[in-house]
Amino acid sequence: MPGFELFGDAERESVNEVLDNGVLMRYGFDGMRNGHWKAKELEAELQKTFQTNHVQLVSSGTAAVSVALASAGVGAGDEVIMPTFTFVASFEAIMMLGAIPILVDIDSTLTLDPKALEAAITPKTKAVMVVQMCGSMADMDALKSVCDKHNLIFVEDACQAIGGTYKGKPLGSIADVGCFSFDFVKTITCGEGGAVISNNKEYYINADHYSDHGHDHIGNDRGAETHPFLGYNFRISELHAAVGLAQVKRLPEFLAIQKRNFNIIRAELSQIPEVEFRTVPEGGVESCAFLNFFLPDLNIARKVSQVFKESGVDACFHYYDNNWHYIRKWDHLKELKSLFPITQEVKEGLQYLQGKTYEQSDSYIARNISCLIKLSWTEEQVMERAKVMKRCILEVLNS
């Protein structure tokens, strides 16, 4: 997944242009820039990459989710439906706005289950956030149909799936508003950064203003700009944007390497009858950032995960026992451990998590192993890795 594996002259040259220019902030200082606007250039490149009308760069993927929701009018007391399998940033971004995360089951796609979504809708539901985990996607037509039926805002977090497509459309561009992360371990990286994308001009304008203290960005005198509404600071810097600008131009190169490595390993593991690969919806094409597969049960998955580690097979995750990505170990959310008082509305809204179980999600995550696809592997290394992985799995199955 990480583009940082293949840093080169393009990234260095882009960063040096900013340092030589001396303007590290994305807004203002027009006379000093000598025509250098890395953030604006990156936004233009991302518009083409994501086939979308509008892109607003922000400081992180987490910021992108909060800004996207705020731009669509989500706030205090609103319920936002999200999956049990994601990253902790998903509920953090929702709660930052005073909204209430409603976690529901995933299905064999490892993403939001449309039936679970439908069952979770209440009069307080304002938005639905699908998270395209580990390089693939949900059944987007089914989810969109539910959102349209109930007049809900549809948010697409594609932070882990840049380069994937659904029926010819880039992931992130399908819902009302999309979110991306460009942190250090994403397919393309800015070091830290994110983006909000949309074809809805109102959402874009809101995101543009909200992410920079409410500045309207009209004219070329920053001090004279008005503030149509309250905002915060989620700006990206020119240095971060410079790295991302070089990286996004290399995205086809990165995706080709990922696909090659992914296919080599998948072909080898497909020879094992007990290995079942995640469901990819019809019309979907994975980004190949991860290879995800299911084993017969939790015990076998745990043993395979351990044997992988002992055999030098790194970057393979068993999320059932992971603290970051699955609700099972999110005690700080369930117990509302916060540095500051949480509103009574949110406290009451999250009471459902006390004693709440997710058997369907457990059945998938317990059996799943998710293998990161690195860019730095040679073809020979990938082929050897695939053979070792196959041997490890068979060793456990036959023990």
Describe it:
The protein is an alpha/beta fold. Helix content is 39%, strand content 14%. The chain is built from 15 helices and 14 strands. The strands form three sheets. A seven-stranded mixed β-sheet has the order 1-9-8-5-4-2-3, with helices on both faces. Strand 2, helix 5 and strand 3 form a beta-alpha-beta unit. Helix 4 packs across helix 5 and helix 10 runs parallel beside helix 15. The model has no long low-confidence stretch (mean pLDDT 97).
Q: What descriptors fit this protein?
A:
399 residues, seven-stranded mixed β-sheet, four-stranded antiparallel β-sheet, 15 helices
List the helices and strands and how they pair.
Blueprint: H1 9-21, H2 30-33, H3 38-50, E1 54-58, H4 61-71, E2 79-83, H5 89-96, E3 100-104, H6 114-120, E4 125-131, H7 140-150, E5 153-157, E6 165-166, E7 169-170, E8 177-181, E9 194-198, H8 201-210, H9 238-248, H10 251-269, E10 276-277, E11 284-285, E12 290-294, H11 298-310, E13 316-317, H12 331-334, H13 344-349, H14 359-365, E14 368-372, H15 379-397
Parallel strand pairs: 2-3, 2-4, 4-5, 5-8
Antiparallel strand pairs: 1-9, 6-7, 6-11, 8-9, 10-12, 12-14, 13-14
Helix pairs in contact: 1-9, 3-9, 4-5, 4-8, 10-15, 11-15
